[in-house]
Amino acid sequence: MAGVHCIPITETGSIMMAWDKDELILTTIGGRIEENESLDEALEREAMEEVGIILESNRIPFASWYWQSTDTYTVWFLVRVEKILAYSFDFEKTGYVIFNFETAKQIVSKIESNNDKRVQILKMAEEQAKNLSWI
């Protein structure tokens, strides 16, 4: 396991994604798992480093993908946002976007028309969020 990502859901049922200034895409929030770090610790660190949010402790895994290019797995969680903090965006992300699932899928499809993986993740997260009555 090398990566952990999440789809944070706000109290109003909207989701958050981050803008990656190097890749010029909207991404799910997360990243690498450091040595001796648990999935929860990595997810908390990445959420704070990327967009300055604190996540609630209830985390629902909804996808795990194998990346042949790196021979690693990434796990995605559906999480609720506990708190959004003021943040300077000093790392690879320049900000976040808050929107509903439908708008997220449309924008990601437009930006990454040749890559449907992120839209697939959003669809899976939306289905899980509906099952949990989070949206």
How is this structure best described in words?
- With 135 residues, the chain is of the alpha+beta class.
- The chain is built from three helices and seven strands.
- 29% of the residues lie in helices and 41% in strands.
- The strands form two sheets. Strands 4-1-6-5 form a four-stranded mixed β-sheet, sandwiched between helices. Strands 3-2-7 form a three-stranded antiparallel β-sheet, covered by helices on one side.
- The protein is globular and about 35 Å long.
- The relative contact order is 0.25.
Gyration radius, rounded: 14 Å
Protein structure class: alpha+beta
Side-by-side strand order of the widest sheet: 4-1-6-5
Runs in which pLDDT lies below 50 for 5 or more consecutive residues are none
Keywords:
41% strand, alpha+beta, four-stranded mixed beta sheet, 135 residues, globular
Question: What is the secondary structure topology, with strand pairs?
Answer:
Blueprint: E1 3-9, E2 15-20, E3 25-27, E4 29-32, H1 39-51, E5 53-67, E6 72-84, E7 93-99, H2 101-111, H3 117-131
Parallel strand pairs: 1-6
Antiparallel strand pairs: 1-4, 2-3, 2-7, 5-6
Helix pairs in contact: 2-3
Give a nutshell description of this structure.
The protein is of the alpha+beta class. It has 3 helices and 7 strands. The radius of gyration is 14 Å and the shape is globular.
